[in-house]
Amino acid sequence: MRLLTTRHAVFFPKLFSLVGCSMVSALLLSLAIGWSSSASAQEPPATPAAPAASDAPVNAPAETPASTPVSNVPAAVAQIVSQIDAAANQRDVQAVMRFYSPQFTHSDGLTYQTLESTLQQVWERYPTLAYQTTIDSWTQEGNADVIETTTTITGSQTEANRPTNLTSTIRSRQRIEGNQIVQQEILSENSQTASGATSPTVEVILPEQVTIGQSFEFDAIVQEPLENRILLGAVQDEPVDANGYLQTLPVEFEVLSAGGLFKQGRAAAVPGDRWISGIIIRDDGITTISRRLRVVRP
User: What is the CATH architecture assignment of 9-296?
Assistant: First the structure.
């Protein structure tokens, strides 16, 4: 899959970069513990976050059949979620890991060991992350509980006197056996950072899912009038990989002649998830956005 970018190569860490922004997905340790929840068995179902998509969504994922209303989630399941929430917000890695099976698997390639080490690294560097999750659905499969959740992650960091705020929303599916999480799959991901006095307001258009080899568009449209100001922008397209959470990657910036990023790409020839990220720099602030694009077979 390829998206066109040109000029001005710089190095850009996927967490918070030297210019005070992020290729947001790296902050998704939410991917592993992001469903830690303040939900309880008595709470009403939350409305899932609307996907960032084109006007006509392509091959939208099928809904989970026979979902039980959230009000009927077993108390034991709700308690597990609540306890993980408390441990995550207190940065207690050992307490979080007690709820994960040693045989834990993850759609991004995380294992029990890599999850534990990654959480330790991220919470040492970014101690203000806060997690809040709602349970969207619950089903029972034999002796296992399967829940789908929506997690909101917020956090902030200040570098060189420039504050940066993160907001991220992740939908995921977890399988619980014997009071431990044995499997997790990320269904969708939508993240944004805002840095500076008045960061650009950006509307993003990207399908949530495409088929292999299919063309698609990625638009990040600045909502404020351009006037006489100059915009710099960049797009990055990379495979979702647990090994890439903390990597520093090169990014090429270009002067934007229009009010945003307007790119066309083609999906890879093999199925898999991609991170599609964009950054827009203006004299008064920086906005970074990231979306997960699922590439599937027809």
Answer: Roll (3.10)
| Cβ-based neighbour number of residue 21 at 10 Å | 29
* Per-residue tens of pLDDT for the chain, all 298 residues: 444 433 333 333 333 222 222 333 333 344 334 443 333 333 333 333 333 444 333 333 334 344 455 788 999 999 998 898 889 899 999 999 999 999 999 999 999 999 999 888 888 877 889 988 889 999 999 999 999 998 888 988 887 788 889 899 999 999 999 999 999 999 999 999 999 889 999 999 999 999 999 999 999 999 999 988 999 999 999 898 877 666 666 788 999 988 999 999 999 999 999 999 999 999 999 999 999 999 999 9
**Whole-model pTM?**
0.75
Q: What residue ranges do the domains of the chain occupy?
A: 9-296
Strand partners, 221: 203, 260
Angle at 126 between CA 156 and CA 157, to 5 degrees: 30
State the number of CA atoms in the 13 A half-sphere of 228 facing the CB: 0
d(CA 282, CA 133): 33
- CB atoms closer than 10 angstroms to residue 34: 28
Classify burial at 13, counting beta carbons within 10 Å of its beta carbon; exposed 0-12, middle 13-18, buried 19 or more: middle
Rounded to 5 degrees, φ, ψ at 146 are: -120, 120
